[in-house]
Amino acid sequence: MTRDHGESTFSPPDPLLCGQTSDDDTLWKMTWECQERPKGSRWLVAKGQQGHLLVPTDRIRGIECPELVSGAYSDKDHNYWQWAWDRAYDWFSKPPWGTFGLGVNAAGSRSHDQLHIHMSVVVGQGVTGQLDKASTAGTVAKDLNHWRNQLTTVNGWDGQTSKTDPRSYRVVHTDSLDFNLFAALHDYIVTPTGEKMADQTLIVIGAGGSQKDGYYLLNSRKDLTNPPAVRGIGYCDSILICK
Predict the structure, then answer these.
(1) Under CATH, to which class is 15-100+110-121 assigned?
(2) Where are the domains positioned within the chain?
(3) What gap in Å lies between CA 66 and CA 180, rounded to an integer?
(4) 161 partner at 20 to 30 Å CA-CA among 56, 68, 132, 142?
(5) Model pLDDT for residues 87-118, shown as the tens digit of each residue
(6) How far is CA 214 from CA 121, 122, 210, in A?
(7) Cα–Cα distances in angstroms (integers) from residue 107 to residues 65, 91, 137, in the given order
């Protein structure tokens, strides 16, 4: 899935979809007051309400920016998901944290218009077990080609009502994060279904106790349905402690 652009050059990103450096978004302005920014990196880590946020140092509004799929921010040097996982693994993989994950919200479900990947613990220790059972039952795709067709219900948590929050997700298991997850979402779900990138949420959770066990990629959107009555969702808060 990794796209090799070689020596290609790209036109300037669309300011309407990707933003401009002069924008007044709070998170974009906060990117320089960061938790961590390795020298020469294209990202930094900022403190979130819960957990941390990996934030690109390039101006990118969010998941809807087409440059993440096939433009200036789509190559291996911009694999934000792998960077986020590596940092989250260092922080959250040991007690007392337990299971952790990554998440990006849909455009209509986020509070900041600068791309940020939530790095936080999973709301309940049972989520991975649910996904393991779904995989055994055949409702988790084994490859990206079948991702859009495999719907499963995951019982998350609604912090406002303090109740279980069942939601519909498309789930696929992958052996690594060494590819462009934004491009995979676009090519294997958004384009075939005629949906919009702006409506999607994407979550990554480890499939076992070791990175060798691979990862579950969970995708949903607000209007996604899994008959008879389980709704989709446009944000990661049902699975991750983001707020």
Answers:
(1) alpha beta
(2) 15-100+110-121, 126-231
(3) 13
(4) 132
(5) 888 877 776 677 899 999 999 999 899 999 99
(6) 17, 17, 8
(7) 10, 27, 32
